[in-house]
Task: inverse folding
């Protein structure tokens, strides 16, 4: 099974900050990496698919990069509505594993 | 509007069974793969099962293999999860999610989860 790790596990930031979250796969997954945002009590929402493709309707301040084993989600200028938990997920092979999540909260 | 609505959750005793449903609307259900993903209280996301658009290819996480069965009825635009031999550790919110990709027996292509349903809570407790 492919294991996914994320760092940091949590971070505190202010509105307007640039934030980056790292995701690492235990083996190469090419660009088969997706990012989701989840707010408390809500279902996850797809932000980025195939490592760097922005899902329709998602603000352009979100971007994804990477390939192989190392990936990054960046938020260029953090907005109040971006405070949430972010998960990466590999879609290279089953089981389709998620990272443990990164909680972004208000500093 | 693309919509997924789960139902069937509730309180069940250990060893019991439950059947979850996911009603799809706003898209051609028969052309998409589907998945079930769960989230235990205060925990992260766990993928548990995949079914191809035709229903011919199915995958399970080891944690549910042999106890859970995924199925679909393309005529009724519905996805199902039959859960047997339930354990306390199965307590979670269960989400269904649409998947534009495809998984063969060996690998997957272009899979992501979008959209998700609102989730249904399954509580396994005596």
Result:
């Amino acid at each position: 099974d492919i294991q996914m790790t994320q760092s940091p596990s949590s971070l505190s930031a202010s509105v307007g900050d640039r934030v980056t979250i790292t995701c690492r796969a235990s083996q190469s997954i090419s660009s088969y990496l997706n990012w989701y945002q989840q707010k408390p009590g809500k279902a996850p929402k797809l932000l980025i698919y195939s490592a760097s493709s922005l899902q329709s309707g998602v603000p352009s301040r979100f971007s994804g990069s990477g390939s192989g084993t190392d990936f990054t989600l960046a938020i260029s200028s953090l907005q109040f509505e971006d405070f949430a938990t972010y998960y990466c997920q590999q879609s290279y092979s089953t089981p389709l594993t998620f990272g443990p999540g990164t909680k972004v909260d208000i500093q | 509007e693309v919509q997924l609505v789960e139902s069937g959750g509730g309180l069940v005793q250990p060893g019991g069974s439950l059947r979850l449903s996911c009603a799809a609307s706003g898209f051609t259900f028969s052309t998409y793969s589907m998945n079930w993903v769960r989230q235990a209280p205060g925990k992260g996301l766990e993928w548990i099962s995949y079914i191809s658009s035709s229903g011919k290819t199915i995958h399970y996480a080891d944690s549910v293999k042999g106890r859970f069965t995924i199925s679909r009825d393309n005529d009724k635009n519905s996805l199902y999860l039959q859960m047997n031999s339930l354990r306390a550790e199965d307590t979670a919110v269960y989400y269904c999610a649409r998947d534009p990709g495809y998984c063969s027996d060996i690998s997957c292509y272009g899979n992501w989860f979008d959209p998700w349903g609102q989730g249904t809570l399954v509580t396994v407790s005596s």
